[in-house]
Amino acid sequence: MRYEVYQLARKYSLGFCQLFLDCPLETCVQRNGQRPGALPAETIRLMRGKMEEPNPEKNAWEHNSLTVRSPACSAAASPELTGLLLAALENPVTCVEDNAEQKETDRIICSTNTLHQADQTLRRIVSETMKEAKDARVRPPDLKLLAAALNQLRAELLQDLRLGHKAPLCSRALGVPDVVALFHDEKDSLVQKYFPKQH
Fold first, then answer.
1. What Gene Ontology molecular-function terms does this entry list (predicted)?
2. Confidence (pLDDT) at 109
């Protein structure tokens, strides 16, 4: 999502900066509990798991970023924040002309990314499995449940991989075939609940 905002800033030649408030999970849960209409603690935990600190070393477009650690979020951070905002305002992101060569390079990088390839492959497997379920005349309410369960399984597996939770399973980096095998292991038992055909 952050990159899309950066692209908008670039498109309209606007300033772009990021302020990341790094707050310990337990503090977030505690503060949430004190709010009227508090969210469930699990929601806060899930959202915290999705938060990603800016990484200017990896992403050059994130160079205008500031991370403020909480509870140290105080007046001490104010000059840095002011500097960040001024730098963004004084140095708008310039709109780059449409560069077909760069787009093609980016497309190749994206297509070679293991997570991207794995996601595309898993989506295809989910689609094929749903077609098989329809052909097997699985009832529409069960089709809906199966689709939701398969997509949740896909999303959870990709999130685990993104966070490195599946890495200890092997001594080398996981490739797309490894990801597909992990997915199939869990998918097959899930599918058996809805229709008995072997997968």
1. ATP binding; kinase activity; tRNA binding
2. 66
pTM recorded for the entire structure? 0.45
Q: Where are the domains of the chain?
A: 2-90, 101-192
> How far is it, in rounded angstroms, from Cα 110 to Cα 116?
7
Helices marked H in the chain — which ranges? 2-11, 25-33, 41-50, 78-90, 100-112, 114-135, 140-163, 176-192
Contacts of 168 (CB under 8 A, 6+ apart): none
Q: Are 54 and 18 in contact (CB under 8 A)?
A: yes
Q: Find where tokens 């790094």 sit.
A: 22
Non-local (6+) Cβ contacts of 23 within 8 A are: 31, 70, 71, 73
> What dihedral do alpha carbons 180, 184, 186, 192 form, nearest 10°?
160
One-letter amino acid for residue 168 of the chain: P
